Amino acid sequence: MTIKMKIWTFVEHRNGKIEEVSYEMLKCARDVADKLGGEVTAVLVGAKDLPIKEIARRGPDKILISTHEMFDLYPIDGISTILYSLLSKYKPDLFFIGHTPTSICFIPKIASNLGIGMVSCCINLKISEKKDLVFTREICNGKLRVDIALKAPLIATFLPGSFPAMEETKERAEIIEESVTLDESKMKVKLVKKVKLPEEKDISSAKIIVAGGRGLKNKESFINLIHRLANLLGAEVAGTRPTRDYGWISSERMVGISGKTVKPQVYIAIGISGAPQHLAGVRSCKCLIAINKDPDAPIFRFADYGIVDDLFKIVPAIIDELQKQKISY
Amino acid sequence: MNICVCFKHVVDPEILVPREKAEGLELEGLVYRANECDRYAVQEALRLKERYGGEVVTITVGPEHAVKTIYDEALARGADRAIHIICNLSFPEDPFMVASMIYGVVKNEKFDLIICGTQSDDNTTCITGGMLAGLLNIPYVWGVRKIEDMKHGKLLLQREVASNEIEIVEVELPAVLAVHIGITELTPVSFTSLLAARKKQLKAIKPEDINININNFRVWNIKELYIPKYERKAIIIKGDIKTVAKELLNILQKYI
């Protein structure tokens, strides 16, 4: 009899809502379990009211649950403590987690502390003929891909959108409840408060989006070129994570894994290199037009139309032409 | 407050040109520079030093030629001294190896705070700082947007959870923080500070000096490095600027 591989996934939920990537991790785990023989366990922890039913419908064989009122006050340390004890007790072979701003607060720390091998920001998982697990990641803004083999036990994080979500299926999960003792004197990261940032504009349903990246060089040219072009086209303005970090756009206009997912008819990407973290937010746009002077920019691999030229020449020319033609959009 | 900043010398992804040749993959345009978030990490450390006193030390794991980046970006920006662990790692490097080497050095120093960037521009694992915190067994927060205050050995900071949500958290020191670009304003580095930097202490060490055999820390077994395939068929619009602009508007009208 062969021993079944223990494949775990982490369920992330925020403000009562399960993150879509958690369903994607269940799909990834199920595929591996089907190929290598194994059972899928979803780990679900929180202060109270865990969304057990929703997870049970997505096909795990087991759901490990744990609740503690202190998880609200110490989310990072609380989750770390319970994961330390669960990983030490059950010793899973594989642990798949969505790469999110919250999960990476505790996962790498646990991995190195317990001496479990880890790989992050993966976009795919392949199983070799020898049944080795090979993880694919993109590096250098997506100009290169690297395939990395890791030995179990291992922890891997995947970018959101790397797998389809696990479809709904018949509930069969065995629910295992684990108690946890939290020693408040050992909790070092305390949540003081959550702040919702005001959103004046929701760009996720925009029909046309003009987005700019680091190639714009500064806020002035971002406004002069991106805003003006968007205005003339009746489009919404968006940007990459660096443009938000530099203060060129507000957070609500940031597209990518920690920002918005958009699905416009047309997405014009100007001075954007095409890092996987940004592309994750535009995968379902109908037509992507890229303008970049670097012919090797990864954005062209994802574009329907490309212009390889200096944006500081091409965008003013488009603006001129639009004004001349007086087309209204 | 004694602060250590993890400062990486990275491959500039924007200049890099990978080419598939008969002999295999060739990396043209292999130019190195300071990691963008790490420049902000140094600047933020200096801001904290100004307010609370102490020393700012940067630590870099990288090849010999990282020296220039350390002088021009870390020491010239204002760090008091730098430590350079000279090591030629295969590309992309295994984050656990890097974290283990940094751990080998910082465990012997008394730092109140270790700051690193949220990600490196070349390898983008986002986990080296977290692994270091795990080895040191001290608190860790990733995604710091702002350090607000320090009281009674605790830092009050803003952590980004999503584009529309932040958390205000209180962290007990010593701790490791991973900070985003934009945590503070970068000050331009002057020519005089570039010269002054060369007189500062830059300690070069080898992994064996801290009793580390890096191969014991290898987790990643790199199978292949390659150029990704096209996902969509990019039709390149060519011609003089006017023609290209007109053509683009024609395409737009088809979709809108």
- The radius of gyration of chain A is 22 Å
| Class derived from helix and strand content of chain B | alpha/beta
Strand content of chain A: 25-35%
Largest beta sheet: strand ordering of chain B: 11-10-9-12-8-1-6-7-13
Question: DSSP strand (E) fraction of chain B?
Answer: 25-35%
- The residue-averaged pLDDT of chain B reads 96
Global outline of chain B: globular
**What sort of overall outline of chain A do the alpha carbons produce when their principal axes are compared?**
elongated
**Major beta-sheet overview of chain A:** 9 strands, mixed
Helix content of chain A: 25-40%
Low-confidence stretches of chain A: none
- SSE arrangement of chain A, N to C: EEEHEHEHEHEEEEEEEHEHEHEEH
> Helix count of chain B?
6
Mean pLDDT of chain A: 94
> What is the number of beta strands of chain A?
17
- Spatial strand sequence of the major β-sheet of chain A: 9-8-7-10-6-1-4-5-11
Distance between the termini of chain A: 66 Å
Number of helices, where a helix is a run of at least 4 consecutive DSSP H or I residues of chain A: 8
Largest sheet geometry of chain B: 9 strands, mixed
Question: Helix/strand/pairing class of chain A, anyone?
Answer: alpha/beta
Q: TL;DR?
A:
Chain A contains eight helices and 17 strands. By secondary structure, chain A is an alpha/beta fold.
Account of the 3D structure:
Chain A is about 25% helix and about 30% strand. Chain A has 8 helices and 17 strands. In chain A, the strands form 3 sheets. Chain A has a 9-stranded mixed sheet. Chain A has a 5-stranded parallel sheet with strand order 14-13-15-16-17. In chain A, strands 2-3 form a two-stranded antiparallel sheet. In chain A, a hairpin with a 2-residue loop joins strand 2 (about 15) and strand 3 (about 15-20). In chain A, helix 3 packs parallel to helix 4 (about 105-115) and helix 5 (about 220-235) packs parallel to helix 8 (about 310-325). Chain B is α/β, with parallel strands linked by helices. Helices cover about 25% and strands about 35% of the residues of chain B. Chain B is built from 6 helices and 15 strands. In chain B, the strands form 3 sheets. Chain B has a 9-stranded mixed sheet, sandwiched between helices. A two-stranded antiparallel sheet of chain B has the order 2-5. A two-stranded antiparallel sheet of chain B has the order 3-4. Chains A and B meet through helix 4, strand 7, strand 8, strand 9 and strand 12 of A and helix 3, helix 4, strand 9, strand 10 and strand 11 of B. Strand 12 of chain A pairs antiparallel with strand 11 (about 165-170) of chain B.
